[in-house]
Amino acid sequence: MLEASNNNELPAIPGKRYFTIGEVSELCGVKPHVLRYWEQEFPQLKPVKRRGNRRYYQRHDVIMIRQIRSLLYEQGFTIGGARQQLSGDEAKEDVSQRQQIVRQMRMELEELLQILKR
């Protein structure tokens, strides 16, 4: 995943909890109408909507937007290709997490078995 520190031309992400669409636009170098369009195209991008349907983005949203920007503008992916790339990354993370959970459960079960044998 693209971290803020890896992208030198974009400003650092401040330590705030929520960002307005204007702030995210400046942080990511993308116009607000493009951000609204990307919300429709990328299911991973879901800012919180509050009063008057205003969008409030969290840090993980800003990082996701920077990753989408990189895929589209720097790596030359189409929107469909970027969407597929992002969903593939999520699938890899899910598999890794599941494997880790299975290993942990197996270790716990083996410990229980040793306790029961005593």
UniProtKB/TrEMBL annotation:
The keyword DNA-binding applies. The keyword Transmembrane does not apply. Keywords: DNA-binding. InterPro entries: DNA-bd_dom_put_sf (IPR009061), MerR-type_HTH_dom (IPR000551), MerR_fam (IPR047057). PROSITE patterns: HTH_MERR_2. SUPFAM superfamilies: Putative DNA-binding domain. Coiled coil: none annotated. GO terms for molecular function: DNA binding; DNA-binding transcription factor activity. Gene3D superfamilies: 1.10.1660.10. This is DNA-binding transcriptional MerR regulator. It comes from Thiogranum longum. The lineage of its organism: Bacteria, Pseudomonadati, Pseudomonadota, Gammaproteobacteria, Chromatiales.
